[in-house]
Amino acid sequence: MNNKGQTLVIFIIILPVIILGVSYLVDTGLMYIGRSKLISTCKVIIDKYYDEEISDSKVEEYLKDNEIKYTDYKVSRNDNLSIEVKSKIDSIFGNVVGIKEYEISAKVTGYKENDKIKFKVE
Q1: Interstrand relation of 70-77 and 116-121 (parallel, antiparallel or unpaired)
Q2: Sheet harboring 70-77: ordered strands across?
Q3: pLDDT tens digits for range 10-25
Q4: Which of 30, 38, 57, 79 pairs as cysteine with 106 (C-beta 3.0–4.6 A)?
């Protein structure tokens, strides 16, 4: 029995699965980095404007300075200051299956505890 070439055939069959797995990991990492960027930008905004009045133009300025392609944002102030941002990030490997962008969101609430601003991320 001649078994030459079996490994090559198995490799060719498994290669697309490996490529899809790696591309999924890359896109997931990009989404994680994008959400982390959203959260840190919201924290900076809350830290700066917790005791002051905040305008929409200031929020938009911070989002644009951090190169965040936001689709929507909400700022609410009760006893705390909350910012919720929805954003889209470009897909690199999702284009293979027809996904051009991923939508991510983050909601950060800032509150004072012992005269320090604390953050709650949702």
Answers
A1: unpaired
A2: 70-77, 81-90, 101-113, 116-121
A3: 899 999 999 888 888 9
A4: 38
CB distance 83 to 121 below 8 Å: no
Contact predicate 27/93, CB 8 Å: yes
Q: How many CA within 13 A on the CB side of residue 31? A: 16
In whole angstroms, what is the distance from residue 14 CA to residue 8 CA? 10
E-state strands within the chain: 70-77, 81-90, 101-113, 116-121
Residues 27-82 have pLDDT tens digits of 999 999 999 999 999 999 999 999 888 888 899 999 999 889 899 999 999 889 99
User: What are residue 114's DSSP bridge partners?
Assistant: none
Place of tokens 């905040």: 54
